[in-house]
């Protein structure tokens, strides 16, 4: 059975963010992920991880001005210097948190973007990813790119697994890999088993949530027991991030994990 990481941006939101580490550990998780750690001192977050026997498995790079609509800047022409600074910041946090992977968000296309503009944004992303990959490689960090659905993130540069993988292939760096989110994939294109099988050699991180609603994995149309067994059979060695919005209460909603022997599997992993 795969190893599960609690996404603290979504789960345990019954308490303030810094208290969610303890709640995640108490619920049996051995690892956490969350989107943006940058409003908290890295040393404080590292202390929370250590105190609760947790490891950090994923963070996002700074997204730009989130409140004003930014969803990453890696693909946006004219903001290369900002991206370069974001790489420095993210790697500093990754080092302190002993985090092995960072999700690079590409950004939003203008609503009137034509084919030429799309090409320009994509070319900017390729250049920036190659630069960031070199910096991250020196620290042993993997960069991930993720196809995001247009319902949740309107205008995002790419939404299909094929597009994501084509970008990975063009970047052509060993430490740039795919982040495969079953929720986003189902919202856009379906064919989950076929796609995760096809791209598994290039997947560094997996995330899950129910469809529709982005609630617990046992709510909705996706057959996660089958898919979790499949990725186990495919030899996936990474973590599965639980990036979902609890429908009522985080701990009460964890019944979907009953019978999966996930606590025993997490306990086998050494924590920092």
Write a concise synopsis of the structure shown.
This protein has helices at 20-26, 42-51, 80-97, 115-137, 161-171, 182-188, 192-199, 224-233, 262-267, and strands at residues 3-7, 31-33, 55-60, 101-103, 142-145, 176-181, 203-208, 239-242. It has 272 residues and is an alpha/beta fold.
- The structural class is alpha/beta
Spatial separation of the terminal alpha carbons: 22 Å
How much strand content do the residues show?
Answer: 5-15%
Question: How many beta-strand runs?
Answer: 8
Shape: globular
Name given to the CATH architecture: Alpha-Beta Barrel
> Biggest sheet, strands in spatial order?
1-2-3-4-5-6-7-8
* Order of SSEs: EHEHEHEHEHEHHEHEH
Question: What is the assigned CATH homologous superfamily?
Answer: Divalent-metal-dependent TIM barrel enzymes
Tally of individual helices: 9
State the helical fraction. 25-40%
CATH level 3 topology = TIM Barrel
User: What is Rg?
Assistant: 18 Å
Quickly name the level 1 CATH class. Answer: Alpha Beta
Main beta sheet: 8 strands, parallel, barrel
What is the domain total for the residues?
A: 1
Unreliable runs: 267-272
